[in-house]
Amino acid sequence: MRSKPVITFALFAYNQERYIEEAIHGAFSQTYSPLEIVLSDDCSPDETFEVMKQMASSYKGPHKIILNRNERNLGLVGHVSKLFNDMSNGEIIVMAAGDDISYPNRVEKIEGIFRNERIMSVSSDFQYIDEKSNLINGKVRNEEGEYNLEKYLKNNFFPILGCTRAYRKKINTFFEPLLAIPNVEDATLTFRGLLLGSLYHETETLVKYRKGIDSLSKDIDISILNNVVKQRRADAIWAKSKKIIDDDTFQKLSKLFQLANKKNEKRKTLEENNSLIFFLKEIYFKKEFVKKDKIMFLKKLIKKKISNG
Fold first, then answer.
1. Last residue of some domain: 144, 178, 210?
2. What is the DSSP secondary-structure string of 111-161?
3. Is 60 inside a domain boundary?
4. Are 268 and 187 within one domain?
5. Which of 126, 128, 194, 266 could form a disulfide with 207 if both were Cys (CB 3.0 to 4.6 A apart)?
6. Per-residue pLDDT reduced to its tens digit, 124-163
7. b/e map of 197-236 (b: 16 or more CB within 10 Å)?
């Protein structure tokens, strides 16, 4: 009979005292075993760590609890890198933000998918909740199944859905340390997963994702998008040097990186000149922008025009 692997449930938080208790209850409720739960605070100035410490000390369940408070604020990327490299014993790491809530069967469902050794990362559908944890109508869904580098090269789009992501540990340990400059982890770790194997999306809803002012998930500006491309290029160079990808694949990726930078410049121009004509000419009727991008930028354009009178 196949033995079940130890999995790490990594709950990382910063300034989330209002929500951290619910997030920890979600971690403690997981039905999967053997499970280690890392409660890690990035040197919050509020009471986030105090709540973590109190709940860890009173926990009587079957899971192993690891408690951590960083001595100084490492930032999102630094915090996640520490969780991967120094604090996790599992070969699969389920990520959870301190303001989101995981359903009890989340880890159980994910473990079954990771039995396919090609799968490097798993995401799922999720349900929006507001600041008071009330459900918001509508769920975020994606197509179920595998997504690999071949598909990425064809359309340059893949579902990130970072709030629901789980990763194989080697996604981080195989590569050189993450650059600090992107300040996002999911867009880079998922790309590393594509270089090493496949991503998988599960259509069951496994996470409640909070849309609120204290969320770690913020709008990403153009400089961050450019730095994500820089990180992906560095990882592609590393993968080529380790013969994970061949020269032809690397050249195709390089063309996509160039295209991504051009798209980011168009986004920047749109935000600066607030022009509907520019949007229609350079974004709406361009194939390189997916439907989701077009809708997002149209909404931003309308909102900005309304605010400017």
1. 210
2. HHHTTSTTEEEEEEEEEEE-TT-PEEEEEE----EEEEHHHHHHHS-----
3. yes
4. no
5. 126
6. 999 999 888 998 876 666 788 999 999 999 876 777 888 9
7. bbbbbbeebbbbbbeeeebbbeeeebebbbbbbbbbbebb
